[in-house]
């Protein structure tokens, strides 16, 4: 692997800083705030001047002189109170572009080893179809998984299925009531739709009628006590519902290495509770078992984590602590990232603190990467016209249908369906990943599928267009040659491609796929300027054409990689 452009410039800066007797931590280049004056800038001299007892401008000038003699730079200037303005040489730019282009595996993205990262996202509940609320966890979670993967980080994704507890008892007792003649241990014939209405109806009935709630509690207890008939029906229900959910995962391209659920860790809970009691971490309070998680410095003390109620039923938080314990034992990850609704922030903080107190999370960095809601046109959480949470498959179907309407009439029938799906999904994902995850956004399918503006289809189309330029060149017998950077738009494009490694590192650090979305849009614009200012197929000379074709290929590779990081696939034609 060859070092990225920024990395190489940083090393040159560090050498010059060291030569002037300065520490090198701030010897870093960033994008120039005024691209007409420079390609990159370094703001690292000013903070060091005081300690060095020197005038910052003079110090910057000394560094500029040393760097200016090197072949990598055309010009190094000092601006303002001591900024360094770096103008890279055409030769160095061409060399970096060629190195990135030849890195087919990583497109220049720096490979790091941070230890195993587990990603917990998706998290559907049994017998509930995926709804609009699951869109974000799946899209953001999968993008983070890909970003880490592209950095060479080992990842394991798991979808903590909600497959245990009272909700399961509600389903089981509801089935018994509706199908009294059904032999025990077997599931009556249910369509997917039957299954979908079963849980909401059962839950409503239990809320309205204490006798139904008692029956649900009894069924839960039987299941948890290992009743074989209850277990058989439950596992059948789980299987059928997971089958439908997996279809949605596949449609969205969300990959799971593990499909574990709350039920998988239940066997650990009694031992865990005993351990916590013994060590005085779990204590009785008002008939329940709790873990104190407040810290002395908190103005508003955090409420304790409820470990077990008096009836001993499994709780969401207890299960999450046990899951942590299981993950530590089985995989010992360096980090676990939970991509779950921001509204569960308190829950995760309680779980994390309790697990740390217990020593269950030693050596594991725990992160709740929360996200905001998907909203309707009124700015409130998205609902269907009937006031229900919209089903994920309907929402995606809608976007795919609208995408189909916008495909050119010339699209062959055989390709329409696949293409509409690729474009519709790109539209939804790009829109979802466009703003920082904690802010909510308005789901506007019509705007998302547009080929104009900051949309998925716009970027996808830009990438396809580069592909067709390359195909056309190939059909004319023209091929890519050595890169030469002459026109300003070529320089800008090479610099933009070279940013990919920096953007990926930053998006990974901040768990912010929106940085990739911003980047890929900027790259598409940079290409579009290059293409209008620099004729490719109609270039003046063979050498110029060859170089520009190589730039097209580089851009296409970088753009495809960036889109892949967002979970967006690029069709062959559009
Ligand atoms: N099933 C949960 C819900 O519907 C989400 C699970 C998130 N992951 C976790 N480890 N708690 O709210």
TrEMBL record:
Main enzyme class: ligase
Motif mapping: 'HIGH' region: 124-134
UniProt keyword Oxidoreductase present: no
Domain DALR anticodon binding positions: 459-574
GO CC term (a single one): cytoplasm
Pfam families: Arg_tRNA_synt_N, DALR_1, tRNA-synt_1d
Protein family per UniProt: Belongs to the class-I aminoacyl-tRNA synthetase family.
Name of the molecule in the record: Arginine--tRNA ligase
């Amino acid at each position: 692997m060859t070092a990225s452009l920024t990395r190489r410039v940083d090393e040159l800066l560090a050498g010059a800083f060291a030569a002037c007797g300065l520490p090198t931590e701030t010897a870093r280049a960033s994008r120039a705030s005024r691209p007409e004056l420079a390609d990159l800038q370094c703001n690292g001299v000013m903070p060091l001047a005081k300690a060095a007892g020197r005038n910052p401008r003079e110090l910057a000038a000394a560094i500029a002189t040393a760097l200016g003699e090197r072949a990598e730079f055309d010009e190094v200037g000092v601006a303002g109170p001591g900024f360094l303005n770096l103008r890279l040489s055409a030769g160095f730019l061409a060399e970096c572009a060629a190195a990135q282009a030849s890195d087919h595996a990583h497109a220049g993205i720096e490979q790091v080893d941070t230890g195993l990262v587990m990603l917990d996202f998706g998290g559907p509940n049994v017998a509930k179809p995926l709804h609009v609320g699951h869109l974000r966890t799946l899209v953001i979670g999968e993008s983070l998984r890909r970003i880490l993967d592209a950095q060479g980080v080992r990842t394991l994704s798991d979808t903590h299925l909600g497959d245990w507890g009272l909700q399961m008892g509600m389903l089981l007792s509801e089935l018994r009531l509706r199908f009294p003649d059904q032999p025990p241990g077997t599931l009556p014939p249910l369509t997917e739709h039957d299954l979908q209405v079963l849980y909401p109806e059962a839950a409503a009935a239990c809320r309205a009628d204490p006798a139904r709630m008692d029956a649900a509690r009894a069924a839960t207890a039987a299941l948890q006590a290992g009743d074989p008939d209850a277990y058989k029906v439950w596992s059948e229900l789980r299987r059928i519902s997971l089958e439908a959910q997996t279809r949605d995962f596949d449609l969205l391209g969300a990959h799971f290495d593990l499909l574990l659920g709350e039920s998988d860790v239940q066997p650990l809970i009694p031992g865990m509770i005993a351990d916590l009691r013994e060590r005085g971490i779990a204590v009785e309070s008002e008939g329940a078992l709790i873990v104190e998680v407040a810290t002395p410095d908190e103005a508003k003390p955090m409420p304790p984590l409820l470990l077990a109620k008096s009836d001993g039923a499994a709780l969401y938080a207890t299960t999450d602590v046990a899951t942590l314990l299981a993950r530590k034992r089985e995989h010992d990850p360096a980090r676990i990232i939970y991509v779950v609704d921001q509204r569960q922030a308190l829950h995760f903080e309680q779980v994390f603190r309790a697990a740390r107190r217990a020593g269950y999370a030693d050596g594991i960095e725990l992160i709740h990467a929360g996200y905001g809601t998907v909203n309707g046109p009124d700015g409130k959480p998205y609902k269907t016209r009937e006031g229900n949470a919209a089903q994920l498959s309907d929402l995606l179907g809608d976007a795919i249908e609208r995408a189909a309407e916008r495909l050119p009439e010339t699209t062959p029938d055989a390709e329409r369906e696949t293409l509409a799906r690729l474009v519709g999904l790109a539209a939804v994902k790009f829109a979802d990943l466009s703003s920082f995850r904690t802010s909510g956004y308005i789901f506007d399918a019509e705007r998302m599928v547009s080929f104009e503006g900051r949309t998925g289809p716009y970027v996808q189309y830009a990438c396809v267009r580069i592909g067709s330029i390359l195909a056309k060149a190939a059909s004319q017998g023209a091929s890519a040659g050595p890169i030469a950077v002459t026109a300003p738009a070529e320089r800008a494009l090479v610099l933009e491609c070279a940013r990919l490694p920096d953007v990926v590192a930053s998006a990974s650090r901040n768990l912010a796929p929106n940085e990739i979305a911003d980047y890929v849009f900027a790259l598409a614009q940079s290409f579009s300027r290059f293409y209008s200012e620099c004729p490719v197929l109609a270039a003046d000379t063979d050498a110029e054409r060859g170089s520009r074709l190589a730039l097209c290929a580089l851009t296409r590779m970088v753009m495809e990689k960036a889109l892949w990081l967002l979970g967006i696939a690029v069709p062959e034609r559009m």
